[in-house]
Amino acid sequence: MKAGVLFALVSAVLGLLGQLAWRSAVPKGAGFDLAFLAKLLLDWRVWLGFLLYGLSTLAWLVALGYDELSRLYPLISVNYALALLAGYLIFGETITAAKIFGVALIIAGVAVVALG
């Protein structure tokens, strides 16, 4: 596997982990007000999400040093499939046929770009 592809995938996974940290910090249907925002800013999961996103960005910058943006960027869409699976496994979110079909189309598009 090429170094650029490897770092792009690492970036994608770290970004997904950041999203999962943020999702775990925000209860479903929490709403939003200044008190809630203040509470969020003190939550360790929010800061973990920032850290993971920062590491994701660093991995992405390294990836760009190895390969073309147009070849690497579609790899980020792997997160759609991973997020669907993680949402189901970790948060009990629903997987529908429409979501599966949509992710399959995204993966097919990534394959076409990768082969081109």
Number of helices: 6
Rg, Cα atoms, Å: 16 Å
Strand count: 0
Strand content: under 5%
Please state the overall shape, judged from the principal axes of the Cα atoms: flat
User: What kind of sheet is the major sheet?
Assistant: none
- Unreliable spans are none
Gap between N and C termini, in Å? Answer: 17 Å
| Average pLDDT over all residues | 89
- The class by helix and strand makeup works out as mainly alpha
| Percent in helix | over 70%
- Write down the secondary-structure element order: HHHHHH
Walk me through what this model shows.
With 116 residues, this protein is mostly helical. Helices cover 77% and strands 0% of the residues. The chain contains 6 helices and no strands. It has helices at residues 3-25, 34-41, 44-64, 69-72, 78-91, 97-115. α1 (3-25) packs antiparallel against α3 and α1 (3-25) runs parallel beside α5 (78-91). It starts with a helix and ends with a helix.
Q: Any key phrases for this structure?
A:
116 residues, single chain, 77% helix, mainly alpha, 6 helices
Chain-wise SSE layout:
Layout: H1 3-25, H2 34-41, H3 44-64, H4 69-72, H5 78-91, H6 97-115
In brief:
By secondary structure, the protein is mainly α.
